[in-house]
Amino acid sequence: MTDNKPNILLLFCDQFRWDCISALGNSELITPNLDRLSREGTSFTRAYSPSPVCVPARNSKFWGLYPCNTGVCDNDRTFKPFSENVMEILGEKGYYSHGTGKMHFAVDPTGLNGFSSRERQEEMASDTETDEYLKYLTDKGYNRVFDVHGQRSEMYYIPQISLLPQQDHPTNWVGDRSVAFLREYDRSEPFFLMSSFIHPHPPFSPPASWNKLYRLPEVSHPYVPDDFDDLLVYINHFQNRYKYRSNGLDRNLIRTIRAFYFSCVSFIDHQIGRIISELEAKGILDKTLIIFTSDHGEMLGDHNSFGKRCMLDPSARIPMIARYPARFRAGSRCDLPVSLVDILPTLASAAGIDTSGIQTDGIDLALTAADKTDREYVFSQFNDAGYGLYMAAGRYEKYIYSASDDKSLYFDRRIDELESKNLAGLPETASGALHMKQVLLDFLSANLPDAVENGDFKKYPKLSVPEDQDACLFYQDHTWCRDAEQEMPEGYKVKLF
Prior knowledge:
Shape: globular
Helix content: 25-40%
Strand order of the largest sheet: 5-4-6-1-7-9-2-10
CATH architecture: 3-Layer(aba) Sandwich
Order of helices and strands: EHEEHHHEEHHEHHEHEEEEHHEEEEHEE
CATH superfamily: Alkaline Phosphatase, subunit A
């Protein structure tokens, strides 16, 4: 490693809520290693996803651009890159980039996409030819364990114990491969390592005995304010339906869901501790920029909702911690708004790269932490046109617009930290709501003009979920499950999707 170029470690999770770190206020959670990162680094407490769904958020992170500028605003969109991603930018300056775990690219799912090397572990549509984790399982004789990441479809939000022991669990494999990379790395150039965990994305399937780390009586109930239904939009109702959470709620089951989710969080924390310990053993901890973050959150029963794709805090707000003594002050907290689009300029700046010529919507996190930026707001988008959901978020205020409902939501955390009431229609908050609406409209006019018409949000037919509780249900089986049909006796046909 050269003197002015740090190694870089990006610890990335899927569906990790912003409020699941003990040191940052949630005493229910056991997260000693994330607590350590918080003590030794800067915690950004108002971090938001540029899109509260996997693929768009990850593309925004890699390319440093909002979804309106990548064109990827939902998981089914593809991307034709017109600029370099963070791995390519670092590679041009001598970095060796290695990725292990889930990437979820919208470009070439199995390609290197700028990494020097890559070890894949993806949830769906993978096989032993393209997925190193599945090959690892096959080599160990697990060729008849079909739901290696947990059973989806009807069981998507049913807590379940992993079919695999701790040492072969997908979360542990990412920890193993990250440690192995650090232990074996002997090149002279600095490295960029991205360790990307699928959990705590559902199914919530920790290994035994991690499933018993949190027991139901110790787990709090979700936050459901009196006016919760007024805060929901079409996508909340649609998600509840297709995730099998719309036909009655069992409060004990919900707390068990939360307990298993917390177990997945703590198991990730354990892997992070192993990775940090390896950096210490090599004597390079303080010479390594570490960033911990996630693509989006998870409603987890709050507001009687589940899933993501929502601009309320449990879904849209994410954790963000940066540790590197040369650039981030230990034990500090920053409540200025930040976003995943800031990852690219942060890593490039730390590597000594001039970012003035890089196309990005982001700002170096070190500048934000030092209060050396005049940015007031960050933005988020899910889908577009009649399904569009948009958000502008500042230090205190947040404004949301759902085209599917022609509905606006306004929150001010100085009045209501928990987003318990929509302040958009109240006379006493009308000026704040109007200002934030204009902030969002100005952003869309400049970046996604099709969302605006005659100076206001473009109007579309309102959407609703069918009354039939069996309508819009969700089926998703891993490709490995096709082999399960061969296990069944004649006359018993497995229904796979």
